[in-house]
């Protein structure tokens, strides 16, 4: 066979956007349900101890809230109360900040860096030792499938502590020619989508650089933060270095406005981020904000389509879509749009929505009633905007806050479901014809946190990637995290970077 | 025959999808995280047992060995007579007559490797004679090997025509086409060879001869299952899948079944459309089935090797 014939057979098709011939069998369906159903395989929660109530963790011990206010933490899969959580008022926050200040002055900032590192390594190991307990707690309190809390959240949280523990005594090498000084007391406010992991992103670099911490977990997911407080206590970490106060927005406000806090780190909605930025304006507080997103996932016609389908599923249905960097806008080149949409629908038929503790569950419970209602509203908005909705036929549990994975086709860039962050398992599909149209659509949003590119050609990845206004660009994959990699947003997706060497900057003053 | 001959057209390689190896591996490991417990485990183990092509392909095979193999295939474990027989026995052509006689009157079919198995390094006519001999001896199924040398040098039409000729020589016998994926090496080649074989008329596509390492792997199997799915969409014709070689443990067998279930669906979960080419897998499945029934693991000495 001649070389030219061979090449003809090997080269992938380039159709310049014109539709490929459609198959005559487009009505053929695969039956994924009628035979060999998986029996339930729940992770046992018998040995997991959740106390009936928790106080704040201040100065190395659990203390009752000053004003005695509490609220309930709910299991979103069953709507049962798991425990009572204390609500911190400004008095509690003040106590916590004082403890952190004393610890900073007397115990932590003066400790040799090598010793600091040892404590952080010990915390990392204790997270690993208690990983099963933490994973089950995370799934019960937040609704995420055990497969994810076991394989992603908890191991990654430990990995961030290990990574930053390593930096503790090497800061002189991180900033050549300059000296890194710690800042003081850091106020940290984290969201409910990855409770323990976001805690790790915040606390690990803060401790490694010699700062002390007052952290507030989200009100719907406080339990793993309180279990982390137990780890701090059991690890022998000096009192007051890590303080955890629980509560909702008012507690967060008290932290942001406290005079003796030197740095604010916030992960959450863009709306709250703007309020925080206003509050700290005119003060000498440093701040980092990691906010919302509406990530574009761009699939070119030369992509590995079957693997792209899997990547799209991971991009939007990971953690019920409660991911700030979710690939919630799918942009597909017109030539493969029909085929990709069909394959995506077929794949969605095999997603198992159900008990978060079942090891086979792909999509767990929506984190809270409020979020469930918000997502439901957006689904109604999508329908009202004239988009075509698709949900797979598989069942969902009766009680609890469960939402079917949802796909909208026939959407426009001007639709609200394309413009606004839904923070749920809802994907919109748009098509494009040329690379420049894909770039334009991808960047046409106030957000800029993440994007994905799917193509078999390396050159295209670098070309398109360099035009993306987003902090992360994933190529032929999505939602991958690593402690060595910086993470953060463009535009309204945030200020500052977390993770990697870059994640040290917000926690040091360079002299 | 008319319908199938109209399906035999050279595949349009310009539409062959690229394969991302890392993506395939991730999909496999995600499917491996499925937890198969309780009733679904028992059901899966019995299903896997019924899908085995119980195989002996040794130079030292004799009639006596093949007769023992067939008896084990018919009744895998005498203390549990309700267990299914395996799907087929798989032997060399000169053992087909013996095997056919021994399994007569049972559900067990006789498969024969042919076409100068395992290398395929022979003239086409020799290969076709090999196939015709096996079919005349009574083989229900023919497991052919493709000419990997021709495939790797880009002579796809040769491979296509060869499969077509073998298919014709098979008559009514089912044709399984062995790609020998261990020699093709890349997943892109696996996909291309799968497309070639299906378009040339394969009833089954099969990973390996078992004589080359690596033999069957889950990433290769997933790529082949996806090729079957895309071909089914294109033509409406179902094609079967047979991973062969290296699958020894019941747990792995269940993982393969999960790949099938979540890629092709329930219609492929029978021995009409999915087979395991294996020999030692049978006893591990039996041990697990007995464990599920009795609650305790039995020693391997309680299970006959042949």
Span of the ends, CA to CA of chain B: 39 Å
**Biggest sheet of chain A, strands in spatial order?**
14-15-16-13-12-17-18
In the CATH hierarchy, what is the architecture of the largest domain in chain A at level 2?
3-Layer(aba) Sandwich
Q: Biggest sheet of chain B, open or closed, and with what strands and sense? A: 8 strands, parallel
Structural class of chain B: alpha/beta
Structural class of chain A: alpha/beta
The first-level CATH class name of the largest domain in chain A: Alpha Beta
- In total, how many beta strands of chain A? 20
Distance between the termini of chain A: 69 Å
- Would you tell me which CATH topology of the largest domain in chain A applies? Aldehyde Dehydrogenase, Chain A, domain 1
Largest sheet entry of chain A = 7 strands, mixed
What does the radius of gyration of chain B come to?
Answer: 19 Å
Q: Tell me what the CATH architecture of chain B is.
A: Alpha-Beta Barrel
Number of helices of chain B: 13
Report strand % of chain B: 5-15%
Unreliable stretches of chain A (pLDDT < 50, length at least 5) are: 1-23
Helix and strand element order of chain B = HHHEHEHEHEHHEHHEHEHEH
Question: What is the CATH superfamily label of the largest domain in chain A?
Answer: Aldehyde Dehydrogenase, Chain A, domain 1
In short:
The complex is a heterodimer of chains A (511) and B (306). Chain A has helices spanning 3-10, 90-108, 113-129, 131-142, 146-167, 171-174, 195-208, 223-234, 249-256, 270-280, 305-317, 334-348, 369-384, 416-419, 435-443, 458-465, and strands at 53-54, 56-58, 61-63, 70-75, 80-86, 180-182, 185-189, 212-216, 242-244, 263-267, 286-290, 296-299, 329-333, 388-390, 406-409, 426-432, 450-454, 472-475, 494-495, 508-510.
């Amino acid at each position: 066979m001649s070389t030219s014939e061979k090449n003809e057979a090997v080269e992938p098709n380039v159709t310049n956007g014109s539709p490929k011939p459609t198959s005559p069998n487009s009505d053929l369906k695969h039956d994924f349900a009628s035979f060999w159903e998986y029996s339930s395989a729940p992770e046992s929660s018998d040995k997991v101890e959740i106390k009936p109530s928790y106080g704040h963790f201040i100065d190395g011990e659990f203390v009752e809230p000053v004003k005695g206010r509490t609220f309930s933490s709910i299991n979103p899969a069953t709507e049962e109360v798991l425990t009572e959580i204390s609500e911190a008022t400004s008095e509690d926050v003040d106590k916590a900040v004082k403890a952190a200040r004393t610890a900073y002055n007397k115990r932590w900032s003066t400790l040799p860096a090598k010793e600091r590192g040892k404590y952080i390594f010990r915390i990392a190991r204790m997270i690993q030792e208690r990983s099963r307990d933490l994973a089950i707690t995370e799934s019960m309190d937040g609704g995420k499938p055990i497969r994810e809390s076991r394989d992603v959240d908890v191991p990654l949280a430990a990995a961030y502590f290990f990574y930053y523990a390593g930096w503790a005594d090497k800061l002189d090498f991180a900033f050549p020619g300059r000296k890194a000084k710690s800042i003081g007391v850091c106020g940290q406010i984290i969201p409910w989508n990855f409770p323990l992991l976001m805690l790790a992103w915040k606390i690990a670099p803060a401790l490694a650089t010699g700062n002390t911490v007052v952290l507030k977990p989200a009100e719907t997911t406080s339990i793993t933060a309180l279990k982390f407080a137990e780890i701090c206590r059991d690890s022998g970490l000096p009192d007051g270095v890590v303080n955890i106060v629980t509560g909702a927005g008012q507690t967060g406000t008290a932290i942001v406005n406290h005079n003796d806090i030197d740095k604010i780190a916030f992960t959450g909605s863009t709306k709250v981020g703007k309020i925080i930025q206003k509050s700290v304006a005119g003060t000498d507080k440093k701040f980092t904000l990691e906010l919302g997103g509406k990530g574009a996932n761009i699939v070119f016609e030369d992509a590995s389509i079957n693997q792209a389908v899997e990547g799209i599923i991971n991009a939007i249905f990971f953690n019920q879509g409660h991911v700030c960097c979710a690939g919630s806008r799918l942009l597909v080149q017109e030539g493969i749009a029909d085929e990709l949409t069909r394959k995506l629908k077929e794949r969605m038929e095999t997603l198992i929505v159900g008990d978060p503790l079942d090891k086979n569950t792909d999509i767990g419970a929506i984190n809270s009633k409020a979020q469930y209602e918000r997502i439901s509203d957006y689904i109604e908005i999508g329908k009202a905007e004239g988009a075509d909705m698709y949900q797979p036929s598989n069942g969902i549990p009766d009680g609890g806050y469960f939402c079917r994975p949802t796909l909208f086709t026939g959407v426009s860039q001007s639709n609200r479901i394309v413009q606004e962050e839904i923070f749920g398992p809802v994907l919109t599909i748009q098509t494009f014809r040329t690379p420049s149209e894909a770039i334009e659509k991808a960047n046409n949003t106030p957000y800029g946190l993440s994007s994905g590119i799917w193509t078999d050609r390396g050159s295209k990845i670098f070309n398109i990637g360099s035009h993306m206004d987003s902090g992360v660009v994933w190529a032929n994959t999505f939602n991958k995290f690593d402690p060595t990699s910086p993470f953060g947003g463009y535009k309204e997706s945030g200020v500052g970077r977390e993770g990697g060497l870059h994640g040290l900057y917000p926690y040091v003053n360079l002299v | 025959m008319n319908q199938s001959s109209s399906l035999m057209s050279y595949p349009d390689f310009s539409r062959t999808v690229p394969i991302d190896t890392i993506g395939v591996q991730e999909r496999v490991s995600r499917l491996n995280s499925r937890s198969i417990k309780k009733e679904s485990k028992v059901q899966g183990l019995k299903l896997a047992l019924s899908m085995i092509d119980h195989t002996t392909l040794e130079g030292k095979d004799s009639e006596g060995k093949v007769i023992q193999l067939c008896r084990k295939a018919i009744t895998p474990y005498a203390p549990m007579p309700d267990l299914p027989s395996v799907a087929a026995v798989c032997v060399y052509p000169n053992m087909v007559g013996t095997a056919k006689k021994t399994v007569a009157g049972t559900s067990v079919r006789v498969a024969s490797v042919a076409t100068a198995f395992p290398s395929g390094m022979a003239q086409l006519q020799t290969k076709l004679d090999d196939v015709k001999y096996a079919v005349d001896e009574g083989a229900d199924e023919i497991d052919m090997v493709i000419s990997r040398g021709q495939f790797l040098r880009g002579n796809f039409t040769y491979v296509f025509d060869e499969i077509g000729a073998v298919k014709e020589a098979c008559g009514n016998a089912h044709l399984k086409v062995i790609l020998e994926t261990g020699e093709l090496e890349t997943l892109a080649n696996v996909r291309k060879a799968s497309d070639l074989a299906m378009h040339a008329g394969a009833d089954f596509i099969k990973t390996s001869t078992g004589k080359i390492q690596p033999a069957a792997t889950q990433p290769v199997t997933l790529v082949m299952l996806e090729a079957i799915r895309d071909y089914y969409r294109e033509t409406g014709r179902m094609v079967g899948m047979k991973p062969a070689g290296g699958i020894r443990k019941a747990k792995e067998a269940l993982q393969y079944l999960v790949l099938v279930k979540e890629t092709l669906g329930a219609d492929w979960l029978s021995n009409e459309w999915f087979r395991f080419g294996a020999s030692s897998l049978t006893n591990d499945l039996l041990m697990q089935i007995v464990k599920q029934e009795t609650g305790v693991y039995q020693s391997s000495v309680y299970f006959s090797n042949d």
